[in-house]
Amino acid sequence: MTQESPSADPSVDPAQVIRPAATVLLLREDPEHPDDVGPVQVYVIRRVADMVFAGGATAFPGGAIDPSDADATDVQWAGPGPDWWADRLDLDAATARGSVLAAVRELFEETGLLFAGTDAQVVRQFEDHRAGDHTDVPGGWSEDVAEQHRADLAAHRRSIAALLAAERRPVRDDLLRPWARWITPPGRTRRYDTVFFLGLPPVGVEPRLVGTEAEHGDWQTPAAILAAELAGQVKMMTPTRAVLRRLAAAGSLDELRATDLRLHIATEAERVAAGRHA
């Protein structure tokens, strides 16, 4: 997640600046469920406890949009493309483009999973030579190269657009679905206008914790996460709770993948109903 100040201008109150952001609910079916169609699981992380924003909270991979995300006009799109996303997210074209690319970038920075290129490249970001698996993935990266790309993005030494252009990988926006949009209400120290995406990767994807912002990552059902919060075992922010409740009431992964989803923009009444814990 991007950590720089909401505004570089010292005369501007950071609490009054609303930063656009994006986060990804990475989904899969429970692989150990005895039925052919198992319950939907979502990948959640626990943020490092001493972080300034949402320290110790259960959350999803994501962060603020970088200017380079919104300015990336030369990116190739494997899915519907920026105009479709602008319509579905109710945003201008640049912010919609930035939201999708920020979601892709942050997912890569925090889990090592890059939604770009072929299905094989998405599932296997690098050839795992340490495991003795020398399967050839066209355009695949060595582990060192993959980590260097990720580190360069996290340190802002390179933009996601420059990386994808150099590697000739289109953005796999066909693996994303619009889910919700939450805007932090006035009176908070930091305010974000966050788009929540569903991430629907090919079978076989296994995210891993990388970077320094999370101390734990795990696949769980939305119901299990909500029950853990009710029992006082985890803490989460209001938007996280709300999108998990909606996901818990949704259908199977195939239904979510096939449904022509429209963005759900949260109202103040929903915010109150979800519980204003953050």
UniProtKB/TrEMBL annotation:
GO MF: hydrolase activity, acting on acid anhydrides, in phosphorus-containing anhydrides; metal ion binding
Sorted UniProt keywords: Hydrolase, Magnesium, Manganese, Metal-binding
Lineage: superkingdom: Bacteria
Residues passing through the membrane, by range: none
InterPro entries named among the record's database cross-references: NUDIX_hydrolase-like_dom_sf (IPR015797), NUDIX_hydrolase_dom (IPR000086), NUDT19 (IPR039121)
Cofactor section: Mn(2+); Mg(2+)
CDD domains tied to this protein: NUDIX_AcylCoAdiphos_Nudt19 (cd18870)
Residue span(s) of domain Nudix hydrolase: 17-249
Name of the featured protein: NUDIX hydrolase
